[in-house]
Amino acid sequence: MSLITFDPARVPTFQVAAKSLLGDTQMRKNVRHATNVIQNKRAIVVNEMPDWQQLRESGRQIKEHTLQHLDFYLKQFEENCTAAGGVVHWARDAAEAREIVIDLVKQSGSNEVIKIKSMTTEEISLNKGLEANGIHAYETDLAELIIQMGNDLPSHIVVPALHKNRQQIREIFKREMNLPDLGDQPADLAEAARMFLREKFLRVKTGVSGANFLIAETGGVCVVESEGNGRMCLTLPETLITIAGVEKVIPRYQDLEVFAQLLPRSATGERMNPYTSIWTGVHPTDGPRTFHIVLMDNARTKILADEESRQTLACIRCGACQNICPVYRQTGGHAYGSVYAGPIGAILTPQLQEMHSGQSLPYASSLCGACYEVCPVKINIPEVLIHLRHKVVEQDTQGFGALNPEALAMKAMAMLFMSESRFRAAQRMGRMAERPLVNKAGWVTWLPGLLGGWTQVRDLHEMPKQTFREWFEQRGESEGSADGK
Amino acid sequence: MANSAGARTEILRRIRVATGPAADRAAIEAEWNGIERAYKHVTSIDLEGRLHQLEDRLRDYDAGVYRSTREGVGALVASILSERGKQTMAVPSGIPAEWLPAGVRFVEDLRGDVSGIDGCEGVLTSATLAIAETGTIVLQDAPGQGRRAVTLLPDYHLCVVDAAKIVQTVPEAIALLQSTAHLATTFFSGPSATADIEMTRIKGVHGPRFVDVILILD
Fold first, then answer.
1. Measured between beta carbons, which residues in chain A are less than 8 angstroms from residue B25?
2. pLDDT confidence of B218, banded at 50, 70, 90?
3. Does A410 have pLDDT greater than 60?
4. pLDDT at A398
5. Beta strand pairing call for A220-225 and A213-215
6. Where residue A477 falls among pLDDT bands split at 50, 70, 90?
7. At CA A463, angle to CA A461 and CA A465, rounded to 5?
8. Position B153 in a domain
9. Count of domains observed in chain B
10. How far apart are CA B61 and CA A321, in angstroms?
11. Which of A163, A305, A466, A475 has its CA 20 to 30 A from that of A47?
């Protein structure tokens, strides 16, 4: 049973975690294969859309508009959902959200729940909270089932078990489902999950889900999925409890026409995902008799208050930025120490932690900008990364932090760059100081102290014998009047 | 129970602090109307083009596709079910009687316990509309389509779609669905599938693993 969770306050820094994970060649091979497949599929179905850029721009504008009027739309959603028979709850933070869900499950009279994959419930470690209260959660998404049975952690927001290959999955299912003769074809593994879960779907009386979109205009909720496990959890139980971040609201039903095009093509490289469900409160004779929805803040309003990083909240959780990121593709998701990995995780996680932890994550990027290019709602992730790096530096240089060697070095650099004569002197001194370190081929392969961080992984070319200014001034002396002016 | 009312007030207050003074409803509506929507809205191909595109997409998802006249549906249903070896089919209330050939047991879903549906080999329904560009069929809680469980539990779904209800784009579909947005709605695009193992789309986990579609042409 998977009760391990990410605790961003206690995980090692990204750089430390990444270093050891880079040694896991099997994991790297799995991640490389899966992300290659998905990137190619995405490229094909995105390129066949002549209006893709217009869709992205509309998606961005809808999200920006919604966030600017978030309280209006949340209240509208609440009013319409309530009118349709739903019960709306509000949770300031993860602990409050867990408490509400646990109480609701107890009220439903069940000591087990069936769950749709929900990164929001992962974010608040809901399963652990339920288990501590004697409630067992069955994950029903294939990837989440693999994670739960393998006592593992999610490494991708769309395909949480992306780091496992079919043989590894077979071993987990063989052991946990007691199926010694299980094959390793994906169809065999899917069949095993179908048989294992069917009885749970028909028996368990309480379902827990996340949400992709909350429609303010109608009070409806939309869940996007592939396998049909979502439909089972949304339709068969007597009680349904949905938990969603406050940023999941969209203004109107019509806005779905944008996201229903952007999300599947970006997430799984499909023209449309197999199933999209929309329900509005309680439908007599169709589906659960009781519907609760928990609207959770958990630091989202903190992000909203920061104008430069507010766009983080526009994320529709497609994972395209993860699949394309040259850093994620090397390290896999676990290095980020959070349920939200990759570029979006690098900006979302530290902000959800209110910058108390996860400070190494904004540095888990080469700022190449590929994530921005593929983002279906045009989140400028590199811009937010730089903004957060600035915040981290500000934190690090508070009080005694101002005396740390990097801060002092930066101060010294600033002094040099402020004056031309100091800069020239520094260049001359640099040429003299480097002389004992330069080898015959003109490279520096070792630097002392803190500077050694550079030469540990790459050589440094020796400084040029002459600076550009020196060359330009000499040129003036010898050729200044050559053109006759 | 946590103090949800207190939490509500606090969250709404935090949002107000974060985003500045509240705008009034009219201003918000005007701003929403001003959102740029330069993407494609309308059908650019004729009925034959839409039919062809829908068929192509459905086959790509590994669904079977058949064309039929309005009078020929019953006979086609009989031959497809016989080929599939299906003898017991669930049907929602309101399905046209002429679609139900003799020789197959059709069990009407009366919305009681779902175990009756679970015992059926398949389900036969109509549909609200279809989207050609994405190979998507939309089901709502309406006569001939039924509650959500009826198209979910059986392993086989035979769906009859009127060609007049095929649109090309997602925006056209959403516009048509707007007036019935409050109904429980399911978009399905081919059989149940997963890409959770090595990102390879394979058919079938929990929803119907086999889907056939009959397109009615007048």
1. 72
2. confident
3. yes
4. 85
5. antiparallel
6. low
7. 130
8. yes
9. 1
10. 26
11. A163
Q: Which residue in the set A194, A261, A268 is minimally distant from B206, CB to CB?
A: A194
Instruction: Using a CB–CB cutoff of 8 Å, tell me whether B113 touches chain A.
Output: no
Token pair belonging to A153: 């952690």
CB neighbours (10 Å) of residue A293?
25
Helix A70-83 vs helix B4-19: crossing angle, to nearest 10: 150
Torsion of CA B24, B29, B34, B40, to 10 degrees: 160
Evaluate whether A223 touches A210 at the Cβ level (below 8 Å): yes
- The pLDDT tens digits for A160-192 are 999 999 999 999 999 999 999 999 999 999 999
Query: Which positions 145-184 of A are in contact with B (Cβ < 8 Å)?
Result: 146, 159, 161-162, 165-166, 169
CATH 3.40.50.10420 location in chain A: 14-302
* CA distance readout (Å), A462 to A163, A377, A438, A447, A474: 42, 44, 6, 12, 22
Determine if residue A86 is left, alpha or beta; phi over 0 gives left, psi from -120 to 50 gives alpha, anything else beta: beta
B37 occurs within a structural domain:
no
Could you report the per-residue pLDDT of A239-282, keeping only the tens digit for each?
Answer: 999 999 999 999 999 999 999 999 999 999 999 999 999 999 99
B94-139 per-position pLDDT tens digit? 999 999 999 999 999 999 999 889 889 999 999 999 999 999 999 9
CATH number where B83 lies: 3.40.50.10420
In a domain, B38, yes or no: no
pLDDT score of A175: 95
Give CA–CA dist B181/A63, Å, rounded.
21
Question: Does the model's ipTM exceed the 0.95 cut?
Answer: yes
Q: Which of B207, B127, B209 is nearest to B161 (CA)?
A: B127
Structure tokens at A58: 């509309």
Structure tokens at A194: 């179908």
Record the tokens describing residue A364, joined without a space: 């888990």
Note which residues in 21-40 of chain A have CB less than 8 A from chain B.
30, 33-35, 37-38
The CATH architecture annotation of domain A14-302 reads 3-Layer(aba) Sandwich (3.40)
pTM: 0.92
Task: Report how far residue A314's alpha carbon sits from residue A300's, in angstroms, rounded to the nearest whole number.
Answer: 11
Sheet with B64-68, side-by-side order of all strands: B64-68, B210-216, B156-162, B122-125, B88-91, B105-108
**Dist. CA B29–CA A216, nearest whole Å:** 13
Look over chain B and give the mean of its residue pLDDT values, rounded to a whole number.
95
Q: Which of A96, A274, A304 sits opposite B190 (nearest CB)?
A: A274
Which residues are CB-contacts of B108 (< 8 A; sequence separation ≥ 6)? B90, B91, B92, B93
> Which residue range is the domain that position B205 belongs to?
47-190+201-216
Q: Where are the alpha helices (DSSP H) in chain B?
A: 4-19, 25-33, 47-60, 73-84, 115-118, 170-177
Give the one of B19, B115, B152 whose C-beta lies nearest to A231's C-beta: B152
Q: What angle do CA A278, A283, A286 make, to 5 degrees?
A: 90
Cα separation, B8 vs B58, in Å, equals 45
Nearest CB to A272: which of B31, B135, B203? B135
Residue A200 one-letter amino acid:
K
Residue B202, pLDDT score = 83
pLDDT band (50, 70, 90) for residue A479? low
| Secondary structure percentages of chain B, helix, strand, coil, to 5 | 35, 20, 45
- For residue A131, give both structure tokens: 């288990």
The Cα of A362 is separated from the nearest Cα of chain B by a number of Å equal to 23
Distance of alpha carbon A442 from the chain centroid: 43
Q: Decide if B157 touches A, using CB distance below 8 A.
A: no
| Structural domain contains residue B27 | no
B35: contact with A, CB 8 A cutoff: yes
Instruction: Give the separation between CA A69 and CA A65, rounded to whole angstroms.
Output: 6
At B170 the pLDDT is 98
